[in-house]
TrEMBL record:
Residues 10-119 form the HIT domain. It comes from the Bacteria. The active site is at residue 105. It comes from Chlorobium phaeobacteroides (strain DSM 266 / SMG 266 / 2430). Coiled coil: none annotated. SUPFAM superfamilies: HIT-like (SSF54197). This is Histidine triad (HIT) protein. It holds the Pfam family HIT. One of its GO terms (molecular function) is catalytic activity. Gene3D superfamilies: HIT-like.
Length: 119
């Protein structure tokens, strides 16, 4: 494990291959895999390999990782068949947003017509 790994974190353990996941994309900074409890016909999670608890803990030194995560979204969407039909990426942060896993993840959701606003 590298210094970015938190042994108490589910998504760090998925990134380390200790817990299986349906992985659709991986590069030197990020990993994307299917959500175990999908909220839409296609529901993927894009995470940084580095353990960062939420957007609130993101530091300016993480700029490259954060940018990389957004740059990967189009390719992840393409692999999930969502590139042309459209998709949404959401970062639930904190209690009101119902964040339950404290390792930054973008929910990439699509495969159906969505509503807005989301409540
Ligand atoms: P949050 O609630 O923090 O915004 O999102 C956490 C997401 O992780 C949820 O959509 C939940 O279904 C998903 N999740 C929780 N545990 C696992 C797991 O073990 N494997 C996968 N693939 N997804 C998980
Ligand atoms: Zn983690």
């Amino acid at each position: 494990h590298n210094s970015f790994y938190n042994p108490d974190c589910l998504f760090c353990r998925i990134a380390a291959g200790e817990i299986p996941a349906d992985i659709v994309y991986r590069d030197e900074h990020v990993l994307a895999f299917r959500d175990i409890n999908p909220a839409a016909p296609e529901h993927l999670l894009i995470i940084p390999l580095k353990h960062i608890a939420s957007l609130n803990e993101l530091q300016s030194e993480d700029k490259e990782i954060a940018g990389h995560l957004l740059l990967a979204a189009g390719e992840v969407a393409r692999r999930a068949g969502l590139y042309d039909s459209g998709y949404r990426m959401v970062f639930n942060t904190g209690a009101d947003a119902l964040q339950s896993v404290f390792h930054i993840h973008g929910h990439l959701i699509g495969g159906c017509r969505m509503g807005w606003p989301p409540f």
